Fold this protein.
Amino acid sequence: ESLVRALSGKWIVRSMNHFANASEFKNKIIANIDNIGLCLGLFLVVRIALSVWAVIVLNIYPYSIEFHWNASAFDLYSQVVEEVYNEDSQMHELTLWPWYRWDSEWYLRIAVDGYQPGGSAAFAPLYPAFIRVVGLVLGRRFLFAALLISNSAAFLSCILLYQETKNMFDAPTAARTILYLLAFPTAFFLVSAYSESLFIFFTLLAWRLAGKYRWGRSVVFASLAVLTRSQGIGLILPLVYMWWKSSPSRPSWGILFASMPLTFLGWALYARHVIGVEYPWQVLDQNWGLRLGWPWEGIINNGRLLFSGSFDGMVDPVSTFLDWVFAILFIVLIIRASKILSIEYALLMCVLILPALIKVSDGGMFVSISRYVLPLFPGFMILGHTGQNPYFHWGWVVVSFALQAMASAAFVLWVWVA
């Protein structure tokens, strides 16, 4: 009888534990569904608003091909893309065409014709490779493929960033972080035919896996980030720091991190000696007139130009202002991240912003900083934390969306923004 009671007691305890685990698992599923729903709702609202805004802008300020600086882009587009949209050209013009601008031309050219001498080597291969594969599956709808990839990656990045922020802070802070990212003045690049959203997605995946000590998988996604944007090579520093800090039981695993710079080197050698194009770093000077400078050089020169007001036709005051302001803002956020989050988050921000700071024009000014800071997700986490103050919250949301409205309007009208 005592044995029966003991066994019954153990069975009851096991059943209760099993029920508790099942209940906990169910709660996690419900929580994840809620998280995904929130991210999806915010993403769709902003995405639809941007599409409607682009249509309004293009109807108020129609432009013609002759005003575009490189009309050959339209020739390429009509030859390899537009014929598949003949039956629904109106829909395609309203939903797809406004987001085919500037660097999108390079990605589409590479996806369709491959790498050619003259500048294409500056663009990492993974995003155009995805465009080609998905575009062929979709019947040569390469522009649709490019936007499908970038928008999907942007949405998935929102989910990962929400979870990361919620783990560090709480759900309201996570929601504000996603809102602040989507409201950021250059966030429209995340839904354009650009590689930023795919790079952020791989970076967040690598970071999430590193936080769970899954170093092999983390390095794989970090290497994919390197093949998406070359600035991803800097991820090796914060990841190695996290690995070292965790006191790994297998020190030999540290050799895995060498695959990240080797990935970049392998791509550079393949581009030069197999494809026959330039090294990626060569075209920055040859085609864009960019060089390496000191990290503070652009901050000083951009600020000097802003305060002097001596702009010429080659320099846009709005983009110069945004670059200068957001460079300073994210440097401040790096300091805040080191105190509020941890050193690895600040180190991540440093290695991602440094390439943008040291890449300056012949005039000593940095360019496109306002776009290059988008992957610095710890900065948006700090902003989300600061958003507990209602004055900051509403000020950031209103000003950010207003600036994004102006910047995206300029973008769809073929005005250089970042």
